[in-house]
Amino acid sequence: MSTAPIRRLTPEEYLAAERASDRKHEFYRGEMFAMAGASRKHVAVTGNFFAWLHYQLRDEPCTVFTSDMRVEVERTGLYTYHDISVTCEQPEFGDGHFDTLLNPQMIVEVLSPSTETYDRGKKFDHYRQVASLKEYVLVSLDQPMIERYTRVDEDRWTLDVAKGFEATVELSVTSEPLPLAEVYRRVDFSADE
């Protein structure tokens, strides 16, 4: 008994299907992968971080994107979604549309239980192939903690960790340090969501 080979999509077919879909999908090596929805805590933390960044960068030549902006990792062929991205350069978009960013400077991922291993591992492996990326920020949902990876050169990254409501984290795109109390404003860590 033989099985029919799996039909692989081209990036163009993926983008056409994704633009017509009401759900988000990652794309890698010809396959589409549905993305899960976010918890209330995840949405709150992402919204707080985005609002703070947007306010801080309001007079700067930077653009802050939400999770609706797709990122293409040209070197590996991954199309994915992040929680927040920033570019302080002229945004570059793929294929003549304005929904696939090619040159993020900073990417923020809020760590959900179902995606934490991927965000720390394979997804970060892909993101490191984006030449414009200078920092990768991981935001915990278990405790007030932010991990910031900063590019030293093409193959080396440094890690800074900020913990606790009184802590702050320096970001390359802002002149003011980010207070963790702002990111975790009104977040209930005792709630299991």
TrEMBL record:
Domain called Putative restriction endonuclease: residue spans: 11-171
CDD domains cross-referenced by the UniProt entry: DUF820-like (cd06260)
Name of a matching Pfam family: Uma2
Transmembrane intervals: none
Protein name (record): Putative restriction endonuclease domain-containing protein
